[in-house]
Amino acid sequence: MARKLAVVGAGLMGSGIAQVSAAAGWDVVLRDITDAALTRGTDGIKASYDKFVAKGRLTAEDAGAALARITTTTDLDAAADADVVVEAVFEKLDVKHEIFRALDKLVRDDTVLASNTSAIPITKIAAVTTRPERVVGTHFFSPVPMMQLCELVRGLKTSDEALTAARDFAESVGKTCIVVRRDVAGFVTTRLISALVVEAARLYESGVATAEDIDTACKLGFGHAMGPLATADLTGVDILLHAAENIYTETQDEKFAPPELMRRMVDAGDIGRKSGQGFYPH
């Protein structure tokens, strides 16, 4: 019997998770609050499958079958019979709380409730449910079809069984997992990239070096595939600003305090590739 996944949020991350899961044989219900958001999500999934077909990495038949395994809805009740639910909405705790409270009343006792958060402690998200032992972090990376990593995050009360189920799910869709054993804000990956981006932005803001030279230093000096400021443009300066602020709020560690330049860029809408301008023109 096919396993069922519910993905809450049809944005870039949610649609990417739906895409790789359907391609791996999961029956997927993709939920968002508007039909327009769902259409954008499924259009993106189809376009991505088409690219894989064009490159010979997926047959047209398999792409069609994967697309047929995805259904869309604006009704959260559609998650009721899912084996795994992945929440992939905006990084605001109150928004996530609203969803997890509702899911807690809907889903089966054995369902794994996962969050794709990149920085908010899983224990905080799980606290509004009656089953914190079933809540786990499954932090995928963008673009999901291309990035191999999934960061599994254990909340204070996450059970071994839920963590194992989350690993089985992530590995079944082709990801390599790391486990965050202590639920710190930002986990492993977001803490590392936030600290690097914040310091790179400070160096750039204070005129120490150009954006290009800072990124070249990281690529050639440390073997990074992409420099921190180019990474910020790809991910979204707004998203990294928000992540760094979340970690700073939790830790009061100055290395995560974003420089004024990042705030002003976000105020001006210069948030990277998606806006046409970030640390670089696009």
Automatic annotation (TrEMBL):
UniProt domain 3-hydroxyacyl-CoA dehydrogenase NAD binding: residue ranges: 4-183
Residues the entry annotates as binding CoA: 48, 55, 118
Keywords: Oxidoreductase
Alphabetized InterPro entries for the sequence: 3-OHacyl-CoA_DH, 3-OHacyl-CoA_DH_CS, 3-OHacyl-CoA_DH_NAD-bd, 3HC_DH_C, 6-PGluconate_DH-like_C_sf, 6PGD_dom2, NAD(P)-bd_dom_sf
GO terms assigned for molecular function: 3-hydroxybutyryl-CoA dehydrogenase activity; NAD+ binding
Residues covered by the 3-hydroxyacyl-CoA dehydrogenase C-terminal domain: 186-280
Keyword Oxidoreductase: yes
Pathway entry: Lipid metabolism; butanoate metabolism
Keyword Oxidoreductase in annotation: yes
Sites annotated Important for catalytic activity: 139
GO biological processes: fatty acid beta-oxidation
Highest taxon, organism lineage: Bacteria
UniProt family annotation: Belongs to the 3-hydroxyacyl-CoA dehydrogenase family.
Name of this chain's protein: 3-hydroxybutyryl-CoA dehydrogenase
Organism: Streptomyces sulfonofaciens
